[in-house]
Design goal:
Blueprint (H helix, E strand, L loop, with lengths): L4 E4 L10 H16 L3 E4 L13 H12 L22 H14 L2 E4 L3 H13 L15 H10 L3 E4 L6 E6 L3 E6 L7 E3 L7 H11 L4 E5 L6 H11 L5 E5 L19 H7 L3 H9 L14 H7 L14 H14 L2 H11 L6 H11 L9 H9 L13 H12 L6 H15 L3 H13 L7 H8 L1 H11 L2
Helix pairs in contact: 1-10, 6-7, 9-11, 12-13, 15-19, 16-18, 17-19
This protein binds one RNA strand of 77 nucleotides through helix 4, strand 6, strand 7, helix 11 and helix 16.
EC number: 6.1.1.17
Subunit structure: Monomer.
GO biological process, one term: glutamyl-tRNA aminoacylation
Length: about 475
RNA sequence: GCCCCGUUCGUCUAGCGGCCUAGGACACAUGCUUUUCAGGCAUGGAAUCGCCGGUUCGAAUCCGGCACGGGGUACCA
């Protein structure tokens, strides 16, 4: 059995790695690893108009952030270099040429305006808006001459009869009528290939054994199958997984849902949690568990078990899962994650002390600041009106000022006694104190927080609040 | 319009002809724990398995039609 080789082929046309690509990457990566194969990243930058500067770099670094490592790619090379399609132009032109020679493709001189007109007409006539094949008939002697002076594209000559059938690991047999397939452009007038030519040529040349991608590619697969046949190449194993959807069930899009890897990173989602969540899309653990590592996923995943239905992306469940991951992270690690998340802006030792207090209270790393900012900055405002409680605060300050053993328990006992003595309900009493010290109504446990802040700071804050 | 792929609680899913008066997780609600918020624990509501026919002693599970959803229909990927 040939060694398994899988790939993802993102195009650098967005600001970053799309979460849908992360999903496809994960499935490919996991499948590769469980088969001890090789995982390849290929950059499909054939649409020059849509290329976004810096996109490729961010895609690669996001993959790295997720810990999805490739064995071959544009940044690290490999036996089938280059891994950027824009650097493989000659290959595509040569292969298009082969197709022409074999009679499976033809030159087309129609202009975009011609095509537009043709399409409009066909739609009006109620026919499928396919290319009508008028350039198929151009004589060899004529086109040999015309390609020297005119702009042209090369089109696939789709057989007029019959069906193109292929087997999909996830969906079984899928079949298309050839007469409904378009004479797809293979080589554009700018000399760049379209996706369809490039993907087939590269997958073959790079010895890709399994094509695992999203459902949106099913309709173009018959064209690819035709190409493999025309070239006389063996067809790789094909699997079309689900496309991720917006909550309204349409294809996941940046309009309706955060899609860029960087968004999740900036919000403080953990890459392991995202991957775990993604693993739950279209697949479930045989033991019914929701939380498992990528190692476990590799062990239990089966490609043929992937469900074909497009699942809706549920940020709420991702947040829950992320919270679970945070709670399972060792304190020392969580501390450095938070520290780095905030660009090392806050004193590491202070974060260290606060971590045990907030570990159960945050779902994403960015929840940390709103909860803990009072540790680093004196409150400027108070979320409740303290003007009615000035005397109480003065009394508290005095009592606390005499406390020698500045520890959470002692502080707590002292305050508890005072509340009891004054017959103030705990909830009310501590809320006043809480806001005086932190400015906030929602905080980590108060006594512990005061211990961390230190006697001096706490006293000065309470005094300030009582003025 | 045409082609293709789908259809189990709001969401992610279990289910491969009897174990299903359909199970779990998220979300939601309630209660307990309590010094806020979380967390934890407990409880609850929530899918007549899209609909209609068929096969079968028996169907969420197999078959057909319809409806609905999604994807594709570019010199985008």
């Amino acid at each position: 059995m040939e060694k398994v080789r899988c790939r993802i082929a993102p195009s650098p046309t967005g600001q970053d790695l799309h979460i849908g690509n992360v999903y496809t990457a994960l499935i490919n990566y996991v499948f590769t690893l469980q088969n001890k194969g090789r995982f390849i990243v290929r950059i499909e930058d054939t649409d020059r108009a849509r290329i976004v500067a810096g996109s490729e770099k961010r895609i690669l670094s996001s993959l790295e952030w997720f810990g999805i490592k490739h064995d071959e790619g544009p940044d690290i090379g490999g036996p089938f270099s280059p891994y950027r399609q824009s650097e493989r132009l000659k290959l595509y032109a040569d292969h298009a040429e082969i197709l022409i020679r074999k009679g499976y493709a033809y030159y087309c001189f129609c202009t975009p305006a011609d095509l537009e007109k043709m399409r409009a007409l066909r739609i009006k006539e109620g026919k499928p808006p396919l290319y009508d094949g008028r350039c198929r008939k151009i004589d060899a002697r004529v086109w040999r001459d015309r390609i020297k002076k005119e702009k042209y594209v090369i089109r696939l000559k789709v057989p007029e009869k019959g069906r193109t059938v292929f087997n999909d690991v996830i969906r079984g047999e899928i079949s298309f009528e050839n007469r409904l397939l378009d004479d797809q452009v293979l080589l554009k007038s700018d000399g760049f290939p379209t996706y369809h030519l490039a993907v087939v040529v590269d997958d073959h040349l790079m010895k890709i054994t399994h094509i695992i991608r999203a459902e949106e590619w099913i309709s173009s697969t018959p064209k690819h199958v035709l190409l493999y046949g025309f070239f006389g190449w063996p067809l790789p194993i094909i699997a079309h997984g689900p496309v991720l959807r917006n909550p309204d069930k349409s294809k996941l899009s940046k309009r309706k849902n955060p899609v860029w890897a960087s968004w999740y990173r900036e919000k403080g989602f953990l890459p392991e949690a995202i991957l775990n969540y993604l693993a739950l899309m279209g697949w479930s653990h045989p033991d019914g568990i929701d939380i498992f590592s990528i190692l476990e996923f590799i062990k239990k995943f089966r490609l043929e078990d992937l469900k074909p239905v497009g699942p809706a992306f549920d940020l709420k469940k991702l947040e829950w899962l992320n919270g679970e991951y945070i709670r399972r992270t060792p304190n020392s690690k969580l501390k450095s994650q938070i520290w780095e998340f905030y660009d090392k802006l806050y004193p590491a030792d202070l974060i260290d002390k606060t971590v045990p207090l907030i570990k159960e209270r945050i779902k994403i790393l960015s929840d940390y600041r709103p909860l803990c900012r009072f540790f680093f900055k004196e409150p400027k405002e108070y979320e409740i009106d303290l003007s009615l409680h000035k005397n109480l605060l003065k009394e508290i300050a005095q009592l606390l000022g005499n406390l020698n053993n500045w520890q959470a328990d002692n502080i707590g006992d002292l305050m508890q006694n005072l509340a009891r003595k004054l017959k103030i309900k705990n909830a009310d009493f501590f809320m006043i104190l809480r806001v005086a010290v932190t400015g906030q109504k929602i905080t980590p446990p108060l006594n512990e927080s005061m211990e961390i802040l230190g006697k001096k700071v706490v006293l000065s804050r309470i005094k300030k609040a009582s003025l």
